[in-house]
Amino acid sequence: LSAETDAKISQAESLIGASHDNLREALALLAALEKRCRVGNDTLSLVRVCETSLQLCRDCGDDEALVATLKNLSTRRSQKTKAVSALVQRAMPWVMDGDGFSPIAVANDEEKATRERLVVALRDITDGKIFLEAERARLTRALATIKVRYGRHTSTLPTPSVRPTDIHPPL
Asked: pTM, whole model, 2 decimals?
């Protein structure tokens, strides 16, 4: 499938080169190829197709499509762990600084919302996957930093409405 993958990726990139409005068509073209690679166990081509799909969304500046594509590709039935790992690795630099522990600096509220939405999506993808445990820890730290930095955190834990003595009366 390598030759077909090269041809389809080139075709999708040329669609985007003609107009950013063709993003849906390019993603549809790559989705069909992704399924063939996944079912045919061609992991190298599958990783390339998944990464290209994300990169096309990023190049077009369509953040909604980026998050949707990321979630869609990572939750496919029988998706290869290499592909999911590659998706997360590709998207990590878009939300994390070079040190790998702090979120990237943003200029306005729209970029803040986009960054936070992408961090949350990546955390959801990495949830429960042992092969992405380190990435999840970095994303969790970045999300905590974002919430603390912009004042959206709770400094105290909520107090329980039921006291322990109400549940278990003294003997």
From this structure: 0.81
Calculate the CA dihedral of residues 149, 137, 69, 43 and round it to 10 degrees.
150
Q: Locate 48 and state its tokens.
A: 């390339």
Cα–Cα distance measured from residue 7 to residue 33, given in angstroms and rounded to the nearest whole number: 11
Q: Rounded CA gap, 104 and 146, in Å?
A: 10
More confident residue, 43 or 156: 43
What phi and psi, each to the nearest 5 degrees, are found at residue 19? Answer: -165, 140
Any alpha helices (H) in the chain, and if so which ranges? 2-18, 23-39, 43-60, 63-74, 81-91, 109-126, 133-149, 164-167
Count of beta carbons in the 10 Å neighbourhood of residue 58 = 16
